[in-house]
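Sat 14:20. Reprocessing the chain from the morning session after the first attempt stalled halfway. Input below, unchanged.
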Amino acid sequence: MNLALVGTGQMGQAVAAVAAEGSHEVTARFNSDRPLVDAAPAALEAVDVAVDFSLPSLAVPHFRRYCEWDVPVVMGTTGWYDALDEVQALVQHHDAGVLYAPNFSIGVAVLSRAVDHVTGLMDEIEAYDAFVHEMHHTKKADSPSGTARMLAEQLVDGLERKGHIDPEAQHQRIDPSAVHVSSTRAGTAFGEHTVGFDSPYDRVSLRHRAKNRRGFAVGALRAAKWLRGRTGLFTLDDVLDDWLED
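Finished this time. Tokens:
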């Protein structure tokens, strides 16, 4: 595949390194020195799929260009999900191909499936209270992470006794109907996510810890290969469904 790399930070560099090992070529690069929003459609003419790890504030402007220019995109940027309805309308209007995920680790996709199964059981056992904790490096742009929000929303959807997530520090008793999402920013941690169920007797935890950025890059490129030739708004769940079916 010919790829456009949008965002050449640490994740972008990891994608470029993994792409170079396979049959993929990065034929266009965009960053703060060469913004995509200033580019002409011809800059992406020979691109099969764009891989975007840029900034939350740029996600929607980038989506507009991908959809208008008929360039499929794998979007790894988070922090824009409140504009999901607008992006969905763009995809439908232009018959575009968009795949987004808060985390492109295959292990996180498996964790998400496990959370759904365990939550179904815990919904019947009220003694267990659910929570999410995540840790990332100090350069992480958003807090909590998109992955942590996704996991917490799964808990809200699956537990009758939970009605909303609360990502803020608690300075008083927490609302029992809230799923508390806590975050740590320290050092160079690639990403750790824990979904816990705590009772007076024990604690059940599901945990994913990334060892490096390579796992995210591999997942993003596999998603790009899957997206090529498809139109619609997809997530990594759609890719995983296909892999499991095969």
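The two ends are 22 Å apart (CA to CA).
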